[in-house]
Amino acid sequence: MTLTSPAPADTSPNAMAPDTAQPYAIRLPAVDGAPAVDVRVATPQGERPAGGWPVLVLLEGEAFFDTAAQVSGRLLRRSAKTRVDAMMTAGVSLSGVADRVAAYAFTPGPQGQAPEPRGAALLARLSSEVLPQLAALGADPAQAVLMGHSMSGLFVLEARAAGAPFARYAAISPSIWWNPAVVAAQPESANLLVAVGAREEMEGLPPAHLARRMVSNARDLEARGASLRVLEDEDHGSTPYAALPAVLRFAAPYRG
User: Fold this and answer.
1) DSSP string, 141-183
2) Which pLDDT band holds residue 24 (cuts at 50, 70, 90)?
3) In the predicted model, is pLDDT for residue 118 greater than 90?
4) Is residue 165 a contact partner of residue 141, using CB atoms and an 8 Å limit?
5) What pairing do the DSSP bridges indicate for beta strands 88-95 and 26-28?
6) According to the model, what pLDDT value does residue 12 have?
7) Domain-located, residue 225
8) Which of these, 179, 33, 181, lies nearest to 105 by C-alpha position?
9) Residue 206 within a domain
10) For residues 164-190, b (16+ Cβ closer than 10 Å) or e, as one string?
11) Among 47, 108, 186, 194, fewest CB within 10 Å belongs to which?
12) What pLDDT does residue 18 have?
């Protein structure tokens, strides 16, 4: 990756961005209704903390891993200003999945769109296999953050309601319309970050889109203790990228 205006050289241990060109670090075959899982991992430069690195586990890693790892590395160059500390980044991708919606869904959906939801099986695989293997690679499971967008953002909320073994959760433009009951199922604690684009629920959108209440549902989560970011000028597709600095600060806040 070449930048047209590189930052001044920094010789500190945190200066270099993680290497994201490495092959998958974890590959799990499909089994017992759970999809095959591929995980790419970027580890910070420098000495690993005694308890391991905080780790940001990104669902839909094929879309978000490279960007998140690169942004994390760039912000780490000036941690005191960006307020982002060193962390491991793990991008989870599903392989050979014909119905990606069903893979993340815990319920069939409002019109039964996913008659065989597989989200619970995927969560079991993340909890019992992916997290332990990330720990073996140097992550601290006690500082693991799960991030998802849209249907995988709903998955994040379902996982939190189910008591999954993540320390914190970041739900970006979650598809709460698929299962509105997930809001009331959320524990009232401060370990949830929610981000949504202001343009996801605005005048002029088709009625069917407005009925999904993307911003309103996010505000309902805020009322239950979530930290909410409504991002001006962002829509459903741009929000996960615009939210990355906030997610990285949430995953590994700078401690000096």
Assistant:
1) EEEEEEEEETHHHHHHHHHHHTT-S-SEEEEES--GGG-THHH
2) confident
3) yes
4) yes
5) unpaired
6) 45
7) yes
8) 179
9) yes
10) bebebbbbbbbbbebbeebbeebeeee
11) 47
12) 57
How many CB atoms within 10 Å of residue 38?
A: 18
pLDDT above 90 coverage of the chain, percent: 83
Q: Which residues pair with 139 in a beta bridge?
A: 53
Residue 199 DSSP code: G
Query: 232 with 151: CB under 8 angstroms?
Result: no
What sign has the CA pseudo-torsion 112, 36, 165, 100? negative
- Domain-located, residue 256: no
Q: Which residue has the tokens 């970050």?
A: 193
CA 189 to chain centre: 18
DSSP assignment of 52-96 equals: -EEEEEEESHHHHHHHHHHHHHHHHTTHHHH-B---EEEEEEEES
Structurally, how many domains does the chain consist of? 1
Structure tokens at 197: 């684009």
The CATH number of residue 244's host domain is 3.40.50.1820
* Cβ pair 119, 155 in contact under 8 A: yes
pLDDT of residue 32: 80
Q: Mean pLDDT of all residues in the chain?
A: 90
> How far, in Å, CA of 55 to CA of 92, rounded?
12
pLDDT of residue 21: 52
The amino acid at residue 193 is L
pTM over 0.85: yes
